[in-house]
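dumping this here before i forget
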Amino acid sequence: MDGYLALVVATLIIGLGAQAYVNSQLKKYNHVAIGNGLTGAECARQMLSYYGISNVQIFRGGPGQDYFDPRSNSVTLSPEAYDGRTITATATACHEVGHACQYAANYTPMIIRGAIVPAVNLASNAWIFLLMIGIFMNMMGLVTLAIVMYAVVVAFQLVTLPVEFNASRRAMVYMGQIGLPTQEQKGAWNVLRACAFTYVAAALTSILQLLWLLGQRQD
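structure:
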């Protein structure tokens, strides 16, 4: 019980710390105007054009909806990113277009991540129930299966890291190539680095959870 309590405290600290850091950077640079005066949507379209990608649509989503959808080959931006003329909006838009560039280039980690999505969807919903049933009914086979399924979720989070890092790198390369001022590039990097930290934090907490589960299995 003490070990599990320590795990809960550690994951809470990591998660809350990551979220606080992200929020501070997003808020800071959401009030800093971008020098070229473009909205995030305009930046996204220009980046797609710069790399010769013409079949990706840009949609205006709801609050917090910033993502690339490979199923429809489209980028969705939150209202702040879509309409904003700030460093945060530019960094967010270019990052999501970075995913579109990965898709167009058949970036291997993205292909791997996409391939395991069905298994992850199943595992992420089922593992905890199998674990509880296995513990209550003293069926170690179910416990082992639950741990294996959770390991699939962890693997997905780990393969997500290079996908996110590479999308941010592509965004930064583009912003450098179009001559975005150094200070604005620095701000954009601060935003992207903060966002990437949330993925690192999620992966770290999942690894800690998996290690704890493996320890319980051995006991």
